[in-house]
Specification:
The protein has 468 residues and is mainly alpha-helical. The strands form 4 sheets. The protein has a 3-stranded antiparallel sheet, with helices on one face. Strands 8-9-10 form a 3-stranded antiparallel sheet. Strands 1-2 form a two-stranded antiparallel sheet. A hairpin with a 6-residue loop joins β9 and β10. The chain binds (2R)-3-hydroxy-2-(alpha-D-mannopyranosyloxy)propanoic acid.
Amino acid sequence: MLQNSKDMNSSTQRDDLERLRTEAYQVLKTNRQPGSATLPSPKQYPHQWNWDSAFIAIGLAAYGDLDGAQAEIQALLAGQWGNGMLPHIIYHPDLKMDERYFPNRDDWGVRFFVNTTDGPPQGIDTSGITQPPVAAIAVEAILKKRIDLPFLETVYPKLYRYHQYLLTARDPDQEGLAFILHPWESGLDNSPRWQPLLDAMPVSPEQVNDVRQRRLDNKGVSGWQRPTDEDYACYIELIRRYRTYRYDPVALGRQCPFLVQDVAFNAILHRANAALLHIADVLQRPDAEKTTIQAWRARTATAFQNKLWSAADGRYLDFDLAHNRPINQNTIATFIPLFAQLPSPEQADLLVQAHLKNPREYWPGDVGRESRLLIPTTSKNNPLYLPYNYWRGPIWINTNWLVIKGLENYGYHAEAQRVRQDTLSLLYNPIPNGTPWRFWEYFDPTNANVFGTDGFSWSAALAIELCG
Ligand code: 2M8
């Protein structure tokens, strides 16, 4: 195992990191579909996912495969809807893949219910919801390595329209906060933050039974590592409702039982708007357009201070628009605003000292619930914390990566280094005469047990980025 920064600087460790990079890139090559995008995992997630592709592009850019990174982004943007939304899944063109993932393309019904000028492009099957908007951040990572003007000119208008959709259709009151309308839009699917909302959603025993029959995600991966059937019944019930509303954004905004201004999603959007501005500068876009992006950023920054910050808790709280109240669940989302430089230095210090470095919450130690590794995705003192279940507590490479960047933004270099060290040590697991790195999906913070699927693309991609 990679143990500490001293080890990491030794020549053996440098060789190991070099091998880690090479093997990680191999995973991405294996998961890439000829002439198309990279699957998160051919076994578990056999289609293209929105924020996965953005993380993959970041890893490809860090490796120096800039053509691959650009192709990944272009494949993602090819699925953009007429109304600007970037769907969370672009289904694999091979229909046989539908036997391997639930819900399948027909379950969304987007072709039937969305006006074609607003909906998915002809010939591309997509889901009907989005995911955290990391794409512009990935494009910025590419442009820092190579300025390919024709590429930037192709992708910029699409990214602009995506952000515009999020800050208009998803922000009818112009607060600078986009709402998400499904737990899957957060990317942190069964985060404890959503539990109170799901508990309030009526789903029948028949619906639970139906998803129990249809679910495929808990066949290759053990069910105890995945969301419950009850959670899945809610996920599918929400999709059923969107079909009933014909994906009309106004109806969705008024009637959806799950409407949340998610701290993590909006922090990522804020950071993505900084990236968009950077791209606009490179392309010398008109001032009016840049002023609009600046206005989005100003609004979001104000809303984070005035609406989402809780002085009593010393952290940001998501806001439940359907019930007009904050959601108070301490999870990894607490730290994502650091990535977007939203907190003041004093707020950042509170987040780091009172929460991240608190052994009752996130920091390793045996006060209350014991853990050894950073960063659990749920605070250890949250009653809903489960170190082995999906987004309920396990460590994920993408959330660690976002927090590492956030800590570095504020000069918390020792803490960032500690998280980076833990992240690489989880990925680096040499076994004699075997494949040393399997790039698992998520990890137990108490004992480094591995969960989910192996050969998981964003674990590999962000490992490359972290190797530097
Ligand atoms: C997971 O989500 C999908 C649904 O979108 C699933 O559980 O089937 C999440 O971890 C999500 O963040 C990720 O993008 C997706 C593909 O890796 O898997």
